[in-house]
Amino acid sequence: MPDRPFGILVLNSISRSGLDRLPPGSFVVGKDIAEPDAILVRSADLHAMSIPSSVLAIARAGAGTNNIPVKDLSARGVPVFNAPGGNANAVKELVLAGMLMAARNLAPAQRFVAGLQGAGGPLEKAIEDGKKAFAGAELANQTLGVIGLGKVGCLVADAAIKLGMQVLGYDPEITVDAAWSLPSQVKRAASVNEVLKNATFVSLHVPLVPATRHLVNADNLRLLKPESVLLNFSREGVVDDGAALQALDAQQLAWYVCDFPHPGILAHAKVLAFPHLGASTREAEDNCAAMVADQLREFLEHGTIRNAVNFPQVEMGRESRWRVAIANANVPNMVGQISTALARAGLNIHNMVNKSRGDMAYTLVDVDSAVNAQLLAEIRAIAGVLSVRYLPA
Ligand SMILES: NC(=O)c1ccc[n+]([C@@H]2O[C@H](COP(=O)([O-])OP(=O)(O)OC[C@H]3O[C@@H](n4cnc5c(N)ncnc54)[C@H](O)[C@@H]3O)[C@@H](O)[C@H]2O)c1
Ligand SMILES: O=C(O)[C@H](O)COP(=O)(O)O
After folding, report:
1. Distance in angstroms (rounded) separating the CA atoms of residues 254 and 60
2. Which of 107, 143, 179, 291 is the S-S candidate for 199 at Cβ 3.0 to 4.6 Å?
3. Residue 15 CA: which ligand is closest?
4. What is the pLDDT of residues 248-282, one digit of tens each?
5. pTM above 0.90, yes or no
6. How many domains does the chain have?
7. Pocket of ligand 2, beta carbon within 6 A
C-alpha cells in the first residue's frame, strides 16, 4: 500500500453510498484534489480538460464513455471503468414512459387540462368535449424496433414483450450473454432499415461512436410509417435531429422522444424532450457509484481490472506481498522481456497473469520478494510498456 491515501477527484454529483465504499484513511475523495490518482465522473466532458499525469484510472459512474478521451488514456496505460447495466432499468422505465406519453398524447392532454378554467358542470363539459383531441393508441400488438441490444436494449425488448408488443431487434455485435437474456419472441432484423420499415416505435440504445453518428438520418427516416415514434435515449448525435424535425413537420414521423434537448428541438410541439434523465433515479445512481467505487478500489489497491472499456478483465488472487501491475501494448515478447528483467534482478515469479484486448495488454506479476525502484525503471523502459505500478500489500 502507498504511504499516503489515494486521492480521488470527483466531478459531477456521485451517490454518497458509492463514495462511502472508499474508506477514509485509504482514500481522500473530493472536488479539489490537486494531483489525483483517479477521477470519478458522470457526464462531465473530460475532452475539454487536461487530465493530470498523476491519474492512474478514470471511473465513469454510468454507461456511455463518449465524454472521456479513451484513446489518449489507453496510450497512457490508464484504464477507463464504467458501470455496465447499473442504470439500465432506470432507462428502460423512462423509455416505457416515453412510449406511453407519445401513444396516449399525454403531454398535450396534460397541457390542455392545466389550461382549463371554471368548476362544476362547465368544467366537466370542457373536459369531456376536449378529450377526443387526445385519443391515442395502445402499445399492445404494435411493433417496437430496438436498435442496440446491450444492457438497456435487452431490458426494453423484454418489457415490451411483456406489454404485448412485437419486438424487432438489431445489433450486429450482440454478445452471447445478451442474446441468451432476450425473450425468444424477439425477432432479429438484419439492418437499421429493416427496423425502420417495420416498426411503429423505434428505440435507440447504441453508444455514440463514429459508426453510430447519424445512424438515423434524412435518408432512412423516410422508411418510417407516418404514425411512428422515434425514441433517442442513446446520445445526441445518434439521430440527425434536424432531419427528425423535418420528418415531424412533413408528418413522416408522429413523435420524437429525446433525452438530449438542445435549442433546435426544445419548442417543437411533437418533441417530448427530457433533461438527460435516463439514469437519474436513486437506485441507478447508487448502483453505478457502488460499481465504479469498488472497481476503482480494487484497481488502485490490487491492480485488478474489472469493467474497463479499454482493457481486458484481469483478476488474480493475492498470494504474495509484492505485486507489479504493467499496462503494455499488445505486441510480441512483452511477457518475455518483463520476466527476463525480473529474473535478472533475482526475483522469483510466484504467480503471473497476462491478458490482452485489441491493442492493449495487461500483466499482473506477484513475486516472492520486494521490488526496487531500479527494476521498476527498467520495466518502464521496455518499448511498448505504457505504465508500471508497484503494489506491495
Ligand atoms: N439517457 C441516459 O441517461 C442513458 C443511460 C444509460 C445509457 N445511455 C446511452 O445508451 C448507450 C447504451 O447503453 P447500454 O448500457 O445498453 O450499453 P451496452 O454497451 O450494454 O450496449 C450497447 C449495444 O449497442 C450495440 N451497438 C453498437 N453499435 C451498434 C450499431 N451500429 N447498431 C446496432 N447496435 C450497435 C453494441 O453491440 C451493444 O450491444 C450508452 O452508450 C449511452 O450512450 C443513456
Ligand atoms: O451513459 C450514461 O450512463 C447516461 O447517459 C447517464 O449519464 P449521467 O450519469 O450523467 O446521468
Report:
1. 35
2. 143
3. 2
4. 999 999 999 999 999 989 989 999 999 999 999 99
5. yes
6. 3
7. 42-43, 62-64, 87, 276, 278-280
